[in-house]
Every structure is written in C-alpha cells, then in structure tokens.
Specification:
Blueprint lengths: L3 H27 L4 H80 L3 E10 L7 E4 L12 E3 L4 E8 L4 E5 L6 E6 L5 E5 L6 E4 L12 E4 L11 E10 L6 E7 L8 E7 L8 H24 L1
Antiparallel strand pairs: 1-2, 1-12, 2-5, 3-4, 3-12, 4-5, 6-7, 6-9, 7-8, 8-11, 9-10, 10-11
C-alpha cells in the first residue's frame, strides 16, 4: 500500500480531472454565456493590451524588413541602370568620334574635288620631339609615292611641306617652323610676298610693299610661284598690319586656318596640273611688284 501522502496526491489529481471535465462540459452546454464566458472575457481584456503591444512592436519590424528588401532590390536595379548608362555613353562617344572623323574625311574629299588635287591621304601620327623644330609625322612614306618637297594641306588650310621620308612615314615641316618659307599672296589684291615661320611660332607675310593695300581679315592663299604649291590653296587671314620701320614693306601677321597640332588627317599633294601653276600673268605681276620694291630700295639708298 502507498503512503498517506501518495494517496492524498492521487485524490487531488482525480478531483482536478473531475472538475476540469465538469467545467468543459458546462462550457460546451452554456455556449457564449455563463461564468466561464465571463472568465474568458476578463482574460481577453487583461491580455488585449499585451496583444496590441506585441502587434505594435512587430509591425515596424515587418515594415523595416520590407524596406530593406525593397532597398536591396532598388540597389540592384540602380547598379544595372548605371551599367547601361555607362555602356550607352561609351557607344555615344564612339559614334561621335566616327562622325567627326567622317566629317573631316569628307572635308578632304571636298577640297580634293574642288581643287582637282592629285594627292594621297595620310594620318598625323606624332608631333615634333624637340623645341627647335615644328614638324609632324605622317603614317605614309615613299612606299605610297610621297617624296620630299611635296605640299601638305588639311581641309582647313595649308599645313606645311614634306622634308624627309622613310618607306612608311614622312616628316612635314609646318608653316610655323622658323625654316619654313613659301610663296603666298593676298587673295583680294594679288599682292605677292613670302610667308615665313619663326622661332616663336608667329607666321608673317613679308616683302609686301607699303604701296599695296592690305587689310586685317584679308585672306592669304598660295600664289603658285615656284611650282611647288598649287595656286589658290587657303592659308589663313591677316591678323594685323603695320608699317615696316624702313618704310618699304608692311609687317603682316597671319593667323593660319589650320591648327597643325590639332590636325589628324591631311592630303599630300603629289603633283600639279597646269591649271594649278602660276600663269605668265601671275609671274609678270610678281616681277612688277619685285621691280617696284627694287626701285623703292634704290630710292631709299639715294636718299641716304
């Protein structure tokens, strides 16, 4: 037999079970009314604030979770869009470069056609490597039929003259080089002179008599004298005009149309047609101007 304590505990357990069954049966029979319903109501009333508090606490956490998920998605979308923008920018830059190159090449073709130039196109691949000369190097040489002395022009204006060649490259002395000197004239008045470079890079039209009419903005072109440069190629325009201290010649500074350091494609003129050479009239005009200069020199010497 068990101890008195075990018997008492067993009786209590049986009593609790009986009471629980009785209460459950009573709750089912009474429905939503009665003492048990009242007890449930009291329990719900007591626990409702706790339920609301839990909902209030968990709701922001759920919101933060949603925001984080959205931010993650938005960041991925933003990264993808940035990649697309970068790709489009690269494509746009490439298209602009192709369009610019096509425009420059079209300018060379127009110059070639309008002046009936016998020429070959070349790319500028480098500039001079020292401070004593102003030259550029082309990507074509003797293998392409280029020889020293040939004129070089861009679509904007004359650039210079070939001074040396290898089989695949050519060196061009620019008009700004202090060793550069070519025949040129004022387009409107046909005043003849020599276009010279300088150590400073300034270009001047020299040996133009003070008796000649030269104005700022006048266009300077090749004269065709000497049979090297074709007649009428644009060079630049007069930037300033002043009297020489001797009183015989004008000091004429010329702004070149072509920026040799920004030029990428050029035409090397390989030969001249008869129409591109100076005419007998041009030569006679040049001789007359030279005679007038000589006469002025003689008069100056006599005065002295």
């Amino acid at each position: 037999m068990g101890s008195p304590k075990q018997s008492a505990g067993l009786r209590e357990l049986v009593a609790c079970l009986v009471v629980s069954v009785a209460l459950f049966t009573w709750s089912c029979q009474s429905g939503g009314s009665g003492p048990l319903a009242a007890i449930r109501g009291v329990f719900q009333t007591v626990t409702m604030p706790v339920t609301y508090l839990g909902a209030a606490v968990s709701s922001p956490l759920r919101g933060l979770g949603n925001i984080f998920a959205n931010l993650t998605a938005d960041q991925a979308t933003l990264t993808e869009l940035e990649a697309q923008v970068s790709e489009l920018q690269a494509q746009n830059a490439e298209l602009e470069e192709r369009a610019s190159s096509a425009e420059r090449l079209q300018g060379l073709l127009d110059l070639q056609d309008s002046n009936d130039l016998r020429s070959t196109a070349a790319h500028v691949i480098s500039g001079s490597t020292d401070s004593w000369s102003a030259t550029v190097t082309l990507d074509k040489g003797s293998a392409a039929g280029i020889t020293p002395g040939m004129p070089v022009t861009s679509s904007s204006g004359v650039v210079g003259q070939v001074v040396s060649c290898s089989a695949t490259t050519s060196t061009v002395r620019l008009l700004t080089d202090e060793s550069s000197s070519i025949s040129a004239m004022v387009q409107s008045t046909r005043a003849q002179g020599m276009l010279n470079g300088s150590a400073s890079g300034e270009v001047t039209l020299e040996l133009v008599s003070t008796s000649q009419d030269v104005e700022v903005g006048s266009v300077i072109v090749t004269s065709g004298l000497g049979g090297v440069f074709p007649k009428g190629l644009p060079i630049g325009e007069v930037a300033s005009v002043s009297g020489d201290p001797s009183g015989l010649y004008l000091d004429i500074v010329v702004d070149l149309y072509a920026d040799p350091w920004a030029t990428e494609e050029v035409l090397v003129i390989t030969s001249l047609t008869d129409d591109q050479r100076a005419t007998a009239e041009d030569i006679a005009e040049a001789d007359a101007q030279e005679g007038a200069r000589s006469s002025e020199d003689d008069d100056t010497g006599s005065d002295e």
